[in-house]
Amino acid sequence: MTGSPQAPRCVVFDLDGTLTDSKQPLAPRMAAGLRDLLELRPVAITTGGTWELMDAQVLRHLDAPEPLLGRLYLLPASGTCAYHRVDGGWLRQYSRDLSAEQKVRIVDTLLSVAAELEILVADPWGELIEDRGGQVTYSVLGQRAPLAVKEAWDPDGSSKEALRQLVQERLPDMAVRSGRSTSVDVTRPGVDKAYGVRELARSLELPLSTVTYVGDRLGTGGNDEPVRSLQEVICIEVSGWQQTAAWVEALVARARHDGPERDREPLADSPTAATGSHR
């Protein structure tokens, strides 16, 4: 692992592949790291998934007291909506939904392209298409496909990338991103994870330069890639929640050791980092 990002005033995490395995719950070690980090600064979690998945994967396993939950921000559906803890409940701060006409056109295109590429599954594990408000997600094997099956399908990512590229060609007015394992996400251009990060920084009255983003799909076509357009944000690429947990533990240890007066000093021995870019 290389790079030396500064200790941020706010950290935004991707979910699947970053904090958890795909659609799996937080591991105890990762949950402990997030609780420790929440004691020090605001934390946000974003995902291409739904609010319900965030609840099942994160909130039911975080075991955080109410004061810490007040520092947690949730950005499901790739940041097209946002939630914050207020008075013991989760308040929706905004939701940038697609229109009904847009959703129909997106669904028709996803299914027709999948059939054209001969990857349309006749007997999937659950629904192939999920309407997430501001995002439509296509899961090649179905929403409830077992993790081992998803990881075995298309190991080099070529089939999913072919799907993403062709859907993008057919929907030039939309943004088509590759999600984790077997999913492709479609949103309006500019309403994505970068949008969510900008809105979060604005609501917290923080400069973007004090925000760090941690994700596993910062490369071209990945659903974390839009965050790279925010030139001031430090982007950290990880490969799996274990690497994220180690990074969080090091960040927490350094912050506790140095105290608030040195809270912005570089953190060594971290995953790949770049300001406004991916490398």
List the SSEs and their pairings.
Elements: E1 10-14, H1 28-38, E2 43-46, H2 51-62, H3 66-69, E3 72-75, H4 76-79, E4 81-86, E5 89-95, H5 100-116, E6 129-131, E7 136-139, H6 147-152, H7 158-170, E8 175-178, E9 183-187, H8 193-204, E10 211-215, E11 234-237, H9 241-258, E12 272-275
Parallel strand pairs: 1-2, 1-10, 2-3, 10-11
Antiparallel strand pairs: 3-4, 4-5, 6-7, 7-9, 8-9, 11-12
Helix pairs in contact: 1-9, 5-7
What does this structure look like?
The protein is an alpha/beta fold and 279 residues long. The protein has two domains: 172 residues, Rossmann fold (3-Layer(aba) Sandwich); 88 residues, Eukaryotic phosphomannomutase, cap domain (Hypothetical Protein, Haloacid Dehalogenase-like Hydrolase, Chain: A, domain 2, 2-Layer Sandwich). 35% of the residues lie in helices and 20% in strands. It has nine helices and twelve strands. The strands form two sheets. It has an eight-stranded mixed beta sheet, with helices on both faces. A four-stranded antiparallel beta sheet has the order 6-7-9-8, covered by helices on one side. Strand 1, helix 1 and strand 2 form a beta-alpha-beta unit. The longest helix is centred in the last third of the chain and has 18 residues. The termini are close together. The N terminus and C terminus are likely disordered.
Short description:
The protein has 279 residues and is α/β, with parallel strands linked by helices.
Helix proportion = 25-40%
Give, in spatial order, the strands making up the sheet with the most strands.
5-4-3-2-1-10-11-12
The termini sit apart by 12 Å
CATH superfamily of the largest domain: HAD superfamily/HAD-like
On the 0 to 100 scale, the average pLDDT is 90
Rg over CA atoms: 18 Å
Q: How many beta strands in the DSSP annotation?
A: 12
Strand content: 15-25%
- Give the assembly state of these chains: single chain
The top-level CATH class of the largest domain is: Alpha Beta
CATH architecture of the largest domain, by name, is: 3-Layer(aba) Sandwich
